[in-house]
Amino acid sequence: MSENSGFWVVSGLMWLAFLGKAPGLRHNRDPLYVLVCGVLLLGGTCFACANPDVIGVVNAATGIPNVSAPLVYAMLTVESALVLTLIIYWRDWSPEKAGRWVRRLMVAYGLAVIGIVTLFALGDAPVERRVDFDPYYAKTPYIREMILLYLAAHTVAGVMATVLCVRWAAGVTGPKWLRRGLRVLTLGFALNIGLDGSKLLAVAARWCGGTRWDWLDSEVSRGFAFACTLFTGIGFMLPMVGGGVERTLREKRVFLQLGPLWRALREATPAVAAALPVPWWDVELKATRRVAEVQDGRLALRPYRNPAVARAAEARASKLRLAPAKAEAAVEAAVLVDAMAAKAASGHAEPPLLDDGAATALPALDQKALIRVSRMIRRPPFHLTGGAPGGRRIPAGSGQGPGERCEG
Length: 408
Fold this sequence. Notes:
By secondary structure, this protein is mostly helical. The chain has helices at about 5-20, 30-50, 50-60, 70-90, 95-120, 135, 145-170, 175-210, 215-255, 260-270, 285-300, 305-320, 325-345, 365-380. Helix 1 runs antiparallel to helix 2 (about 30-50) and helix 2 (about 30-50) packs antiparallel against helix 4 (about 70-90). Residues about 385-408 have low confidence and may be disordered.
């Protein structure tokens, strides 16, 4: 593996993060969303262009030794401006204050980019230096100023971004994944200061004419660059990826926890199961469909619900001193088990009408309540029987005891 493969790894991660957000551009034209995508795309491209192998290719293709230097420095400067713009608009500032700061940034960093290109054109850098360009040309007129200009612009951006993120994080009350992403972003921006500091020390050592510290530029700064780019990309992606993974896991749990109840209802009322397949990867849709089919199954069993069973289950739940939510789920489970048995016993006959109109009452249950009912189907607190002997229905208000419908 090439010693420069790390550049491709970090660039690939940034581009992967961009591809994760890019589909949203079709529906989301929010300027801030576009800015995030731009930062990720430009960050990956900038890191790829800083790869010594790519530097050699670009220099050879243009015929200008070291032309990659102003190219990479200009992209770094533009990326710094975009990052600061994002943070400013993310803050709870008024639109007027945010707009005023952004306009100043655009002017300052636009002039910095122009200055970088102009100084390189005025200077003379005939010897190609792919790894140690900064210390090698630290004393060269105009090139020296170009190096200092880009380091100053990048350092100011890193310090500002770190300070703004620290202040923001102290008062942010948003979703937990936003807070986590903000902390990672703060670390990434802080590491930028180490990157610029190591480069500046290597350049200063050349100015002093003493011991050369070129290794600070070629090795230490490279490590800082890898780390800060990686943490910045993770920080931008964490709110979206973390929240998405959490939602997927939550929907997966709903899908699995409703399994016992869904399977029982599907067997009793097969017509409620939709024939249209759901993609295996769309967990949210699978969970939504399962909830809908469970509700449809309960609705299909509505004519077979018996209030006597509910009263018997309520008595057993009270005797066991179950918590209210758990008792409600146990009662519903008992009624459904009885209704499924009654439907199976009736065959294709029309469901019998009970004397009490409350027999067909269908309590509204949300997703959490349905999950509790499913747990009761799988592990009931007391024995749930399915119907009277011979499938006979017990009319409401009859003298027959409820214990015959829900035995312990």
